[in-house]
Design a protein that fits this description.
By secondary structure, the chain is an all-alpha fold. It is built from eleven helices and two strands; from the N terminus they run αααααααββαααα. It folds into two domains: about 120 residues, no CATH class; about 140 residues. It has a two-stranded antiparallel sheet with strand order 1-2. The protein starts with a helix and ends with a helix.
């Protein structure tokens, strides 16, 4: 009898006492606030977000490249909302465009860190690697979505601290063992990595529309072989749910690359002038700026190539492909005597 009375009392109390309308209104307000923060956190950085001022510090070979890497990778932590790729709470967990942009930036930072460690800081193949760069490079290559133990942010900060230590040493005349070698072969090595990165992004962007590609994996080498047999015609298509992710990853990669090229243009000015490649670098920067033009559509459209609706991935692929071709031209110039 007591339990029946208690249950009856509970049913009578809930509808009258619980302010359902206020709870519903509060949830709507929280949703609107979350959407506002999500929009603000998803804003892309300005083209000159990390541009270096020539008057900031006396010129030291390699300083601009390292400083650009520090600022570009540091932007991942300092931007509105901080690093979002490992967020587990709203609104960060709902976002995917900015995390994809972040991944594109991080991939370019990883490439620069690797070439800094293996090429820019070493005079020859048998020279000893720099101790600070040996810490920075693996730190940047840590998992991009680790939430804790350790968090990705802590590893990025570890890499940034190591880069700052290296930068201080190359700027100190009393540290002759720390060097940055601005040579044509070193620059060519980094551009070869960039060439592969942009080539992959261009193919993935173009695959937003299903297409049949001729298998040219072994073209030009009759004696070449690969692991498994592949068809002469290959169907390529980026999954529909991944199209916007690839698009924003390419935008992030293009933005980071633009920052690095501006720094490389300063540190390797003598090499570029000697090879008559300064104008070619400027053209690459123009193509990347075009790839980062304002996007006025609230969604990434995926119309067919010549259909009624736009295909933003194909437009971006056009800019990335032209930058890719220009990089090949610069590498040819650097290889010439």
């Amino acid at each position: 009898m007591a339990s029946k009375l208690n249950m009856s009392w509970l049913r009578d109390w809930l509808p009258e006492q619980v302010p359902w309308r206020w709870i519903g209104s509060g949830l709507v307000v929280l949703l609107v606030i979350g959407c506002g923060f999500g929009w603000y956190w998803s804003r892309e950085p300005a083209l000159d977000q990390v541009r270096l001022d020539a008057r900031e510090r006396p010129f030291v070979t390699g300083y601009a490249t390292v400083e650009s890497t520090i600022r570009t990778c540091g932007w991942l932590l300092d931007k509105p909302g901080g690093y979002l790729s490992n967020d587990l709470m709203p609104p960060g967990v709902w976002l995917d465009n900015m995390p994809s942009f972040e991944f594109g930036v991080l991939e370019q930072c990883r490439d620069v860190a690797r070439v800094l460690r293996d090429r820019f800081s070493r005079s020859q193949s048998q020279s000893t690697e720099d101790a600070d760069l040996a810490i920075a490079q693996p730190a940047f290559n840590f998992s991009s979505d680790s939430w804790i133990f350790p968090a990705t942010e802590s590893k990025i900060r570890e890499g940034l601290d190591a880069l700052r230590a290296y930068q201080d040493r190359i700027s100190n005349a009393d540290e002759p063992e720390a060097q940055f070698f601005a040579r044509a072969d070193n620059l060519n090595e980094w551009l070869s990595v960039v060439e592969l990165r942009l080539g992959s992004l261009s193919q993935r962007l173009s695959a937003s529309v299903e297409r049949t590609r001729v298998n040219t994996d072994l073209a030009g080498e009759p004696s070449a072989a690969n692991s498994t047999r592949r068809s002469q015609l290959v169907e390529v298509r980026t999954p529909w749910l991944q199209i916007d992710n690839v698009f924003y990853e390419a935008r992030g990669s293009a933005w980071a690359l633009l920052q690095f090229l501006r720094a490389i243009e300063r540190d390797f000015s003598g090499v570029l002038e000697d090879k008559n490649a300064t104008v070619s670098i400027a053209q690459i920067e123009r193509e990347l700026e075009g790839a980062l033009g304002n996007l006025f559509s609230p969604i990434i459209l995926n119309g067919s190539g010549f259909g009624l609706f736009a295909n933003h991935s194909l437009v971006l692929a056009s800019y990335i492909s032209r930058a890719h071709s220009a990089i090949i031209d610069v590498r040819d110039l650097l290889e010439q005597g």
